[in-house]
Specification:
Layout: E1 8-17, E2 26-36, E3 41-45, H1 52-59, E4 67-72, E5 75-76, H2 81-90, E6 91-94, H3 98-101, H4 108-118, H5 125-135, H6 154-166, E7 172-176, H7 184-201, E8 204-209, H8 212-218, E9 221-226, E10 229-235, H9 236-241, H10 246-253, H11 286-290, H12 292-295, H13 299-304, E11 317-318, H14 321-328
Helix pairs in contact: 4-5, 4-6, 5-6, 6-7
């Protein structure tokens, strides 16, 4: 059987911002290939500042790439207002903080109906809002129409934000840290909701998170990002049970259920305007620091030889000289 084409694809994507006072540009996204298929949930994981939110904004058409291109439904993304308006009906954003993304002066009804009004919806607005709220788990929906955000719990506010995305019947949602601001008791409910939306409506999702535990619970596939580039990707069970990149191993090591001592990475991620030569992780790499890379004969490559950009496909891939030596050794 032939694999269906991806719903959303990025090829050779770069996003750079001008440097301060005429300095070197900041390479926030520095060569990314990524595919998301219909009905697939992909988790984009990494530390704060690694470029994952900028990548998500580029995929939404909110930031124009410096190089590379984005395709949706087999067609390239165009940066005309008409094209982007139609595109954003099919691809919706769910923000991290429901309190910040909901206008405190607007009722739940108006918050959910806003997208319909922007896009000139010609159908029954009341019915569409009620259906979106019901899909998001707020039932009976009419009970919530005249409520204001301050009258809702944190979980209910996040469901209203999700309903505002669902009301336009998108094919893909981009959820940026969708449960980061919620209590632990509510997080599971929202994750279960996202899984149900995929199962019942075929909704695809890119979930942006720093939490590998969240990725484990919700994603089909995970892409681990470091300093503007995806360094490991593959099916979530494969990557998270047998991680090959030292950075992925370090992120996993701090989860409570992971056996062994946590890996403490030294220092902060480098400035994206001064990306180091060789492997971009080598200045913090525990494998290089321990001498394991030297024993494998790849320490020089780690410090001076760049790695190829990983492809956007669904197979397991890793950008690491040491991991490559483990396979061939």
């Amino acid at each position: 059987m032939t694999t269906p084409p991806p719903l959303l694809s990025a090829r050779g994507l770069h996003v750079a911002f001008p440097g301060r006072h005429g300095g070197a540009p900041s390479r926030a996204v520095d060569g990314v290939e990524l595919d998301i298929r219909a009905g697939e949930i992909v988790a984009l994981v990494g530390e704060s500042g690694c470029g994952k939110t900028t990548l998500a904004r580029a995929l939404l058409g909110l930031v124009r790439p410096t190089a590379g291109h984005i395709g949706f439904g087999g067609k390239p993304l165009e940066y005309t207002s008409r094209f982007l308006k139609a595109y954003r009906r099919r691809v919706q954003l769910v923000l991290q903080d429901p309190s910040g993304s909901l206008n405190p002066r607007h009722t739940v009804y108006d918050a959910v109906a806003e997208g319909l009004r922007i896009h000139g919806y010609a159908g029954d607005e009341r019915a569409a809002v009620a259906e979106a709220l019901a899909k998001a788990g707020l039932r009976p929906p009419e009970r919530f129409f005249l409520r204001y955000p301050h009258e809702l719990s944190g979980g209910q506010r996040q469901r209203v934000v999700i309903a505002g995305a669902l009301v336009l019947e998108p094919e893909l949602i981009v959820a940026d840290e969708p449960v980061a601001s919620l209590d632990a008791s509510v997080r599971g409910e929202i994750l279960a909701l996202l899984l149900r939306l995929r199962t019942e409506f075929g909704l695809a999702a890119l979930v942006v998170t720093h939490d590998l535990g969240l990725a484990w619970n919700i994603a089909d596939r995970v892409a681990v990002m470091y300093l503007g580039r995806i360094v490991e990707t593959g099916p979530v069970e494969q990557v998270l049970t047998a991680p090959r990149h030292p950075y992925t191993r370090a992120l996993l090591s701090v989860l409570p259920e992971t056996p062994g001592e946590p890996v403490v990475l030294t220092g902060e991620p480098p400035d994206p305007s001064r990306i180091p030569a060789g492997c971009r992780f080598h200045v913090r790499c525990q494998v290089l620091a321990s001498g394991e890379a030297e024993q494998a004969g790849v320490a020089g490559a780690c410090r001076g030889q760049d790695l190829e950009i990983l492809g956007g496909g669904s197979g397991e891939q890793v950008a690491c000289h040491w991991a490559g030596a483990q396979v061939t050794g």
